[in-house]
Amino acid sequence: MTEDLRTEMADTLEKGASGVETQGQETPSASASPANGVDRPRIEAAVRELLIGIGEDPDRPGLVGTPDRVARACEELFSGLADDPARHLRKQFHEEGNEELVVVRDIPFHSMCEHHILPFIGRAHVAYIPRDGRITGLSKIARCVAGFAARPQLQERLTGQVADAMMAELDPVGVMVVIEAEHTCMTMRGIRAAGAMTVTSAVRGTLKTDNKTREEALRLLGR
Question: Which residue of the set 49, 100, 114, 215 is catalytic?
Answer without folding.
Answer: 114
